[in-house]
Amino acid sequence: MNGVALSMDDVHQAASKFLEEHNPTNQLPIPIEEIAELKLGIFVLATPGIKKLIGIDGFISSDFSQITIDDYCFVKYPERTRFTIAHEIGHKILHQDWYSKHGPTDFGDYHDFFSKISEQDYRYMEIQAQTFAGLVLVPTELLKNEFKSRLGRIPINEDVEILQPIFNDLLTTFKVSGEVLYRRMVKEGIVKKI
Where does the IrrE N-terminal-like domain lie (predicted)? Predict the structure, then answer.
């Protein structure tokens, strides 16, 4: 796939294909760390000070062999780390052509990366990778099935407070942050946007 020109439908299709290939049994939580390291051959490296120095939680190398993650995030926020891994895999899947030519090779090269991309294109690629990560970690059908098994139905446009106990339970099931789960629930029309 080629990055900025992608539609959100392309991103949805890429996430579905990724899950069919790498999690065909619909295991929950999605074993994104194992998929990265064992199936895709991507080494996940926790490195001190990334967030402080360059303001991000992590990045993938242009040869797609390594995801470097801020060590504080890695230790303190496992759900955020999982999202970062899925997000960076999203760049590999969605932006491989562009990223292999222009992406950072390592930590020292990361600042030069921004001179190779416009702010608008960077924003589009980030939105696409975030959407991919959310769809991979909280797949639509699995989210709906989890609601149905707990509630007996799939909620439609509910107030999030009504679903709070189920919401809390689903955080553990999907092993994602509240923000990721909430956004996925809003996108699927399960809850109203606050």
Answer: 77-184
